[in-house]
Every structure is written in structure tokens, then in C-alpha cells.
Amino acid sequence: MAVTASGWETDQLPGGTVDAVVIGGGAAGLNGALMLARSRRSVVVIDSGTPRNAPADAVHGLLGLEGTAPAELLRRGREEVRSYGGLVVAGEVASAAPASASTPTSASASASAEGNDPRFTVTLADGGALTARRLLVATGLGDVLPDVRGLAEHWGHGVVHCPYCHGWEVRDESVGVLAVGPASVHHALLFRQLTDDLVYFSRGTELDGDTRARFAARGIRIVDAPLERVVTDRAGGIAGVRLADGHLVARRVLAVVTRMLARTDGLEGLGLPMEDFPGGMGRRFSAGPAGVTDVPGVWVAGNATDLTAQVGASAAAGALAGAHINADLAAADTEAALAAVRRDDSAA
Predict the structure, then answer these.
(1) How far is CA 48 from each of CA 42, 60, 65, 66, 90, rounded to the nearest angstrom?
(2) Same structural domain, 216 and 153
(3) What's the CATH number where 289 sits?
(4) End residue of a domain, out of 204, 224, 256
(5) Containing structural domain, residue 222
(6) pLDDT band at 31 (very low <50, low <70, confident <90, very high)
(7) Are residue 290 and residue 303 in the same domain, yes or no?
């Protein structure tokens, strides 16, 4: 077993066809793989090693694992998947597409008849490839920050986005909300629960009289002046926000609603449907109950389809999708076995 540059062990790609390939090794992908491996399915997780929460110090809101470092949580998850025979392979997916022999007709009927058990070819950036009967897409998402000079370098530390993921850790600090649109108003009210010292930088977004009155009632100060940049202090933290007129508004923490985009690299060949979030706030894979998609044999789980899901919700979605995939495979196995018996009976 090899070791990645990040220090975690990676399995080798198996030969032949596996029951399921999970694309993405975060909470959703690993929990989906765990359910499949515990059902005695051959499953391979392809992990690019770039989790969304890598900059964070700890995972929060996860019962029993509160405060666990993200890297440690994933390490444990990989070990658990392997303990049931699953494989976790470090790599990036270059392409994923239905294999030429695959002839599915619908998501609900993909395993209902012999010859209707789909196959997919997954090729990695290093040239390795494998074939899978089912796919679970759990690629997560990427956050796009507002174009404010000096902001990105503090992402995951002084710059936060989720009051439930980071709120307790920044309680009672001087917080500034950098507005990006209507969603930022709700964002500000949530962070106001955590601190009495909140400044709302409107950044040219519209605030009606009613909203301004509500902010005033909660003691939220509004700054309408244009911003120039985020200022870093000598210790490497945030000192404040420099306005275009040269004035510095001292802040220790900045909160921002990011634009969230599902990671789609290498998945174009699957033809998965996607949809936009209102207000230009993001783009995700479309999925129904249990993560089933319009592409037979493909499921989606976690932030790739639920942009606001925290770690616990993503893990739960992965488990549900994994169970659903196993059920679909069980139906296909049964149909294949029945067809074989009927062939034997005909031959006799």
C-alpha cells in the first residue's frame, strides 16, 4: 500500500468490474462506501484529497465527534471502510461515462431485466481505469469568495461562512458581514446571535427601509461605503476592513456567504442534470430521494447536491444513497439469477 503526499495510505485499483465506485472521499462518500462494504459489495472510493473543510480546525455539530479535526475524521472513515473490505484510492477522476455495453432505460428500472444492469468506466488522471456497476458521486463543492483584496488568505480561519460550523468559536468577537446579496441579511441576523459587535458592509447591495430598521433594532451597524481591502495584523490575523476613503473599520472576524459550486471535473460524460440556486448563490447536481438521479445507475450525495449540508447531514445522505444502491444491485442480481435458471430450464 502506497502513501500519499498528505500522509495517508492509498490502495491500488482492482481489476475487473466492481459493484460500486464512489467518487469523492469526504463524509458522504465514505459513509456511502461503508454501507456498501458492510453489505458485502465490492466498492472503491476515489479520493482527490482536497476536502472542502481542509482549512478548518475542527468539525462541529457532529454528535459524539464534536471538535474532531477534519483530517482525523477522514482517516477514521477510511479505516472503517477498509475494515469491511472496501478500497480507498488516492486520485483524480479524469472521466466517468457509461460503458458501451450499458443499456439502462430508467433509474427505477435499470436493474429490472437481464441486460439492463448498467456499467460505467471511470478513468483516473494517472491513466488507471476501472469498471463499475453503479456510481455514487460525492465530490462535494467549492466555495467562491467575493472579490475583495486580502480576503482569501484568511479563509477558514478569520473568514468564516457558517454560523453553525464556526459560530461558537467566534462568539463575542468583533464580526463584519460582507454582503453579497439578499442571503447576507439572514446571515447577519444569525451571526448577531453570537456577538453584540456586528458590522454589516453592504458593498453596494440594496437594503430597504424595513431591513435597516430591523438591523438598527438589533444593534447591527451598517457601513455603505465601498471597501478597499482586508487588512492583516502583525500576528497574521484580521485587523479590519479598509474603506475606499482610507478609514479602517476594526474587525477580528469576517463572515461571508460564498457562491457554492458542485465539483464536476471529469463527470461531464455522465450527463447528470444540474440546477442553479436562487440569486446566483450556487449550482448543484439535481437528485431525488436517496440521491437517485435521472441517469440510471448513478446516485449523488452530500454537498454536491445539498449545498448547505453540514458533515453530519452529508454522512447521513451518503449512508442512505449507499443503502439504495445496494438494494438496486440486489434487484439486478436477482433478475440475473432468475434469467439464468430460466435459460437452464429451457435448455433442458
Answers:
(1) 20, 23, 24, 25, 6
(2) yes
(3) 3.50.50.60
(4) 256
(5) 147-256
(6) very high
(7) yes
* Per-residue pLDDT band at 348 (split at 50, 70, 90): confident
Domain total of the chain = 2
Region of 140 please: left (phi>0), alpha (psi -120 to 50) or beta: left
Residue keyed to cell 458581514: 177
Pairing outcome for strands 253-256 and 159-160: parallel
**98-103 — which CB contacts under 8 Å span 24+ positions?**
98/269, 98/270, 98/297, 99/131, 102/297
- Within this chain, do residues 70 and 136 fall inside the same structural domain, yes or no? yes
DSSP state of 272: -
Higher pLDDT, 55 or 309: 309
Q: What is the pLDDT of residue 111?
A: 38
Distance CA 16, CA 39 (A): 19
Per-residue pLDDT of 61-112, as tens digits, reads: 998 999 999 999 999 999 999 999 999 999 999 999 999 744 443 333 333 3
What's the mean pLDDT in 163-172?
Answer: 93
pLDDT in tens, 207-230: 999 999 999 999 999 999 999 999
d(CA 340, CA 131): 23
Question: What is the C-alpha to C-alpha distance for residues 161 and 121, in angstroms, rounded to an integer?
Answer: 37
Q: Among candidates 203, 141, 218, 169, which has minimal Cα distance to 61? A: 169
**Residues 154 and 129 both lie in one domain:** no
What's the predicted TM-score (pTM) here?
Answer: 0.91
Q: Are residues 134 and 263 in the same domain?
A: yes
Q: Looking at the structure, tell me whether residues 263 and 252 fall in a common domain.
A: no
Q: Give the phi and the psi of residue 204 in degrees, each rounded to 5.
A: 85, 0
Q: Which of 222, 240, 256 is the last residue of a domain?
A: 256
Looking at this protein, which amino acid is placed at residue 71? A
Q: Please tell me whether residues 179 and 160 are part of one structural domain.
A: yes
Residues 45, 59, single domain; the answer is yes
